[in-house]
Request: fold
Amino acid sequence: MTQNNSTLKKSQLSFEIFPPKKDEEFENVYQILRDLGKLNPDFISCTYGAGGSRAGKTIEITSFIQKELHIDAIAHITCVGFTKEDLEQNCAALKAAGVSHVLALRGDRPQTMTDEQFNSREFYYAVDLIRYLKEHTTLDILGACYPEKHFEAPSFEEDLRHLKEKVEAGVSSLISQMFFDNQYFYRFLDKARALNINVPIHAGIMPITTAKQIGTTVSLSGSSVPKELADIIATYGDDKEDMRKAGIDYAVRQIRDLQEHGVDGIHIYSMNKVKTTTEICSMIG
Ligand code: FAD
Reply:
């Protein structure tokens, strides 16, 4: 079995950000990154628009993180919307931009894509992309994992079998989908370790600071919402500041418990929110 050690330093804290939709918001994202950089994360990852839209923006942002902030940058990269030729160009651009870590994903189907377009992609599963990158580049490759199983997988066990294939193909570490009940993550960790999936696994934490997030981001992720969090939203959802505070408190309690369990890393889905991320980091020390 091929299992590479991560070339990243031991990660205990990392953030995910996304490229702004409009070009005029770009200066703002650099300030967000400077502020997030002050929190000393071990790495920052930058998402890739569904279907490969605005790929160049992910490269620009990760280059800034790597070259200007001197923080390990992870560029997300997807099978969807990408031909082999696009991928080669993207890898060359990443190299020129000084970015050497990627999170290799299958990607979700954009709303504008037909079934036929979605199913005719050249790399079908993330593992196909990982194998290609491993063979043709020197990139450090990370993968995604799902504590509550991926929504399309017929069973938790089958999803884990495919996860093991990604690790055997050469991913150096895994970043988890968001979850709101740590018990799912601990169950997933036990099962993954039992299958000899021994790479570092970063726990994905999404602070819920508005009621709207449950209807959008969270429902797309397929992650379940425990009663305690649903009650918080029912109680504070209408008051912006109270909801923000209650959501931060929930995320902090989740993180502290994960830290006490000695997880490899905490990956905060920052949603580009500096104030919330800073408050969480100061509370978790
Ligand atoms: P895969 O590992 O390919 O798995 C997808 C499904 O196929 C699973 O059900 C799996 O069990 C199954 N499967 C895998 N291999 C096989 C096989 N050989 N045979 C049969 N079934 C198989 N999306 C974006 O568009 N842009 C982003 O930037 C982005 N960032 C993300 C970051 C993280 C940390 C996570 C967790 C997700 C992110 N996503 C992003 C969403 C992701 O693209 C979707 O969740 C997508 O549906 C699955 O991607 P994957 O890489 O996990 O797919």
Residues 22 and 54 are 10 Å apart (CA to CA). The first helix runs from residue 26 to 37.
